[in-house]
Amino acid sequence: MPFLGVVLFFSKTSKYYAPEYIEGRLIQLFILTIIIPILVFRVLKKLRLTSSIMMESVSERKIPYLIAVLLNLYITQYTLNNSQDVELYYFFAGISFTAIAFLILSYLNFKASLHSAAIGGLTMFCTAVSIHYQLNMILLIGLLLFCNGVVASSRLHLKAHTSLELIIGGLMGVSPQFMMMIYWV
To answer: In a 3-state reduction of DSSP, which class is residue 82?
Structure first.
């Protein structure tokens, strides 16, 4: 979802950035948000620290959440800090807060829905971009809201989460993005 947020951001704001800059950012963030997490998961699976991508037990989630916190803090502090795309800096700062909250909840033995957090955070970020740049993104935001419902329904149908876990997850994705809007919208 973070990489999708970056792609959506640059697709809506490409006139403000040089094509080479966009390409460089996309490659950099693709590696940091997709390639590295996949490699880390493969290592954790080989070390038998996680059994499947679903990470059904709360204890299996602690190490991936810690790695997510460190990776998102790295992206925020070293990749996007002092860059011209301040919106992405605050997007990843919000993601960092979400990852920290999930790590804390895992140590409290509570399994909130990361799926709900991800789609909720992306929806809030796209809403903020729409407001900031005064872009008509109502169809995209409507589609994302629909996806929020589909994600929640599917997680309930699969019995992967309870309603409370979905609500907590959604709030943990939306709230940091909403709070970060103060700094850039």
So the answer is: coil
Taken in order 142, 92, 38, 60, the sign of the CA dihedral is negative
End-to-end CA distance of the chain: give it in Å, rounded: 21
Q: For residue 88, give Cα distances in angstroms to 3, 81, 85, 132.
A: 10, 9, 6, 13
pTM score of the predicted model: 0.92
| 81 φ/ψ sector (left φ>0, alpha ψ -120 to 50, else beta) | beta
pLDDT in tens, 129-167: 999 999 999 999 999 999 999 999 999 999 989 999 999
Q: Answer whether 143's CB lies under 8 Å from 126's CB.
A: no
In whole angstroms, what is the distance from residue 54 CA to residue 32 CA? 21
